[in-house]
Write a structure and sequence with these properties.
The chain is α/β, with parallel strands linked by helices and 409 residues long. The chain contains 15 helices and 15 strands. The longest helix is centred in the middle third of the chain and has 43 residues, at 168-210.
């Protein structure tokens, strides 16, 4: 958990030095700097901004760098400095480190903000990152495999872009890369699939809270990005000519996705009825489809739900990750007979009163209040403060005005 946060020259935050609590409410007008505070925490954790990837866009005008420093409970310190040319300096406990993942492990952050509310309609990258955030924090072996896969993929795509026809030497090199990609892909898929299966019941619980009317109709599915029954290098070899024409690799872990599907209440009722009358086997779902003459088993939830319902669905996706992560840590610690020493997740909620209705906000905050996580939330007004004070003991409330942050007495 962050005990003290210092920010220098990030957007309109020239110098910020604040003491934080388990729950922190940051109140201010649009453009005052409240979202920049969340951006700074995210930057420290992830090494990039959720608003713009180019450092020169968030480094304060006429400054050469932006710096974020945090003291965590237990006296650990983290720091990141971003130069305008994207040069990055990372420090853990005053020592220079060279991989962002080191800081990410110390400070896991979960962001719920307006920019994520279009996740269902956007490309697969943001949904895939949602799953990979969980896998990264729950499976130590995942990140090295992911890094190695990305390195080989970059080499392969570079070759595909610059050569329409490959020489024998290039072809041998590409086949070697494909073997490596295939090996890493199998392990990455293994990690993702295991965590996805563990995630499912937590997602169902969140849906039951936030969208109870659709609890029986929404389901989460994962696609690997390639046919996992066949080695990836075999499939890449079969598609090589098409990849050369397009100049990039079309299948693999980098095309994985998660989807939320919707089915009609009649269809769900038919499944329930059929389940009660007979033992359900693996083909039962298809049989129910035939019996009820359903022509569409699954529809993308984004095509069915209203804008407000989609906001709740995305909130459920993110919210369901926290109890899974925390429960997994407790289980792992108990299995080896040790107390938990893992990092406390930090939840960043940006302007949630503008995106969610009062009922959804109450459910979201009451759930967060029961979990051992730290919360930073922003709001245009202080209307949310009474609820926060009901749910958290001694929350911190800050007001932001023109980049200056003041604690409320």
């Amino acid at each position: 958990m962050i005990e003290r946060l210092q920010i220098s020259n990030l957007r309109n935050l020239t110098q910020v030095n604040l003491q934080s609590a388990a729950c922190n409410v940051v109140i201010g007008a649009n453009g005052s700097g409240k979202t920049s505070l969340l951006e700074a925490i995210f930057l420290l954790s992830r090494g990039k901004s959720f608003r713009h990837h180019q450092p020169k866009r968030y480094i304060q005008h006429h400054q050469t760098s932006a710096t974020v420093h945090a003291k965590l409970n237990g006296s650990s310190t983290l720091a990141i400095q971003k130069q305008a040319d994207a040069t990055t300096l990372l420090r853990l406990n005053q020592a220079t480190v060279y991989n962002q993942s080191v800081l990410t492990e110390q400070l896991p952050t979960l962001l719920i903000d307006p920019s994520t509310m279009d996740m269902l309609e956007q490309g697969s990258a943001s949904r895939r990152q949602l799953l990979d955030w969980l896998v990264f924090h729950m499976k130590q072996g995942f990140h090295p495999q992911w890094v190695a896969y990305q390195r080989l993929l970059k080499q392969r795509n570079s070759l595909l872009k610059r050569a329409r026809h490959l020489t024998q030497v290039q072809l041998a090199e590409l086949h070697s890369w494909d073997k490596g990609l295939s090996s890493h892909a199998a392990l990455i898929h293994h990690y993702r699939e295991r965590i996805f299966m563990e995630w499912q019941p937590y997602f169902a619980d969140s849906i039951a809270q936030l969208l109870p009317a659709y609890a029986e109709q929404l389901s989460l599915t994962y696609s690997a990005g390639y046919d996992t029954s066949v080695a990836l290098d075999v499939q890449l070899n079969e598609r090589l000519e098409q990849d050369l024409q397009l100049g990039y690799t079309r299948i693999g872990n980098h095309r994985a996705d998660i989807h939320v599907h919707w089915r009609s209440s009649d269809f769900a009722a038919a499944i329930s009825s059929d389940s009660k009358s007979a033992t359900v086997d693996s083909n039962n779902l298809s049989q129910v489809e035939v019996n009820t003459k359903q022509t569409v088993l699954k529809e993308q939830a984004a095509n069915i739900l209203s804008r407000g319902e989609k906001k709740l669905l995305i909130t459920a996706l993110r919210l369901s990750q926290l109890p899974l992560l925390l429960n997994a840590e407790q289980t792992a610690d108990l299995s080896i007979g040790e107390c938990s020493t893992r990092a406390t997740p930090v939840v960043l909620l940006d302007d949630i009163t503008a995106e969610l209705d009062s009922t959804a906000i109450e459910i979201l905050l009451s759930t967060l209040a029961t979990l051992p996580c730290q919360v930073f939330m922003t709001s245009l007004t202080d209307d949310i403060v009474p609820l926060v004070k009901e749910l958290w003991k001694n929350p911190s409330v800050f007001h932001v005005k023109q980049g200056q942050i003041f604690p409320t007495q």
